[in-house]
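Input/output pair, single chain:
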Amino acid sequence: MTDAAATGVSMQFHPQPAPGVARPWAFPAPERGSLPNGLTVLRCHRPGQQVVAVEIVLDAPLDAEPEGLDGVATIMARALSEGTDKHTAEEFAAELERCGATLDAHADHPGLRVSLEVPASRLAKALGLVAEALRAPAFAESEIERLVRNRLDEIPHEQANPARRAAKQLSKELFPAASRMSRPRQGTEETVERIDAGAVRAFFEAHVRPSAATAVVVGDLTGIDLEALLAETLGDWSGDTVEPRPAPPITADDTGRVVVVDRPGAVQTQLLIGRIGPDRHDSVWPAQVLGTYCLGGTLTSRLDRVLREEKGYTYGVRAFAQVLRSSAPDSATGATGAAMLAISGSVDTESTGPALEDLWTVLRTLAAEGLTDEERETAVQNLVGVAPLKFETAASVAGTLADQVEQHLPDDFQAHLYARLAAAGTVEATAAVVSAFPGDRLVTILVGDASRIEEPVRALGIGEVSVVAG
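Output:
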C-alpha cells in the first residue's frame, strides 16, 4: 500500500499544457531610405531585440588596393577604431566600452564592412563614435606601425595552419596571377611591410565616402527617432560622389589536378577540393544549395555517411558554396559574380588515398543515381526549418541584409529564398550538385606528408599531381 493510499490523501494533477498554435515566420522586410549626404539606409524594427546591430557596407573592394600594397584595406579597416580627430585610440576604446558596444571592421573581396552591436539605450552615443571613425580617423603613424607588425606576426601562424594554407593554395591555383583573388586577402609579408600611414590614408580618401555606402540598422527601435539620430551622426559624414567601381570579370582554371603542399611528418592530410560556380543571382542557386547540403552539409550527408560513419577516415567532411564577389548581371555579357564551391576536411595520413577514392566514388554515384526524395526532404526541413532560429538575433538579420547589399541582390531575396528552396525538386537538386562538383573539373589541394601520400593519390588518376613546399 502506498503512503498516499494509507493516509487517504489523493493527488490532484494540473491539466497538461497544450502547445500553442505555430505562427508563420518570414524573413523580416527592411525599410529603405537615404540621407542627404548620399548614404543609403536600411532599417528593420525587431520588437524585443534590445541589442541593436548596425552593419555599414563600403564599396572598397580588395581589387581596388594599389599594386604592391595587398593588405592595405585590412590595415585601414583595423585602424578605424584606433583613434579619431577627437579621441586617441585609448579614449575611443574607453568610450565604446562605456556604451557597452562592440565594433569590428574587416575587408574582403566585395568591400569593407563595419559592424556595431550596442544596447538600444546607448545607440545614439555609439553611432556618434562610428560616424567619427568614418569621418575623421586619425591613422596615427605609431598605430599603423603597430597594426602592420601585428599583421606580420599573424602570417606565419596562418602559414602553419593546414586549413588556411590549403585555402591560400587553392586561390593561387584557381585564379590568374594578375587577379587579386589569387593572392591572400590580408596581404603577404612583402606587401604588408610596405604599408604606412600615408598609404592607409590614401586608400581611405579614395574609397570611403557616404555616397558609396549603405547602413543597415536592425533591432528594437521603439521610442528611437532613427531618422533624426542618423542625421545627427552618420549624416555629418561627407565625401565626393563617384560612380560605382566596375567589377573585373572573374575567371578561373578548374582543370582537374592535384597539388600536394608538402608537410614532412604530418600525421593528417588537410583536403580542400574546389572550383568556382554560380553566385546567388543565378536561378540554379536554391537547387544548388539543396544538392550541396545533401552532399556534405551535415552529419547525415553522403560524404559524412561514407567517410566518417562507414570508413572512419575523418571527423567530418563538408561541402559548401561561398560567394566570392557578386554583381548584378552585366547587360552586355550577362556575367555576374562567382561562388567558391568546395569540399573540405581532414583525414589521417595513411587514409588519404582511400579517402579520396571513396570521395570520388560518392561523386560518381551521385551523378549516376541521383539524390533520393528522402535526402531532398531532409535538406529542405533542415534548411528551411532552422531559419527562425538562425535569424533570432538582430546581428544575424543585419548581417544577411548587408550581404544582400554587398551582392547587389534585392531586399526581399532572403525572404523568397526559403520558398524557392522548398519548391526545388529532387531531380533539380541532383542536376545542380552534379554540375557544381564534376569529378573531372575539380582542383584538389592536399596539405600533408608528400612522401607518404603522393604515390597513392597519383594512382587514383583524378588529375595531374604536383608537389609544392609547405
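The chain has a mean pLDDT of 93. Residues 57 and 113 are 5 Å apart (CA to CA).
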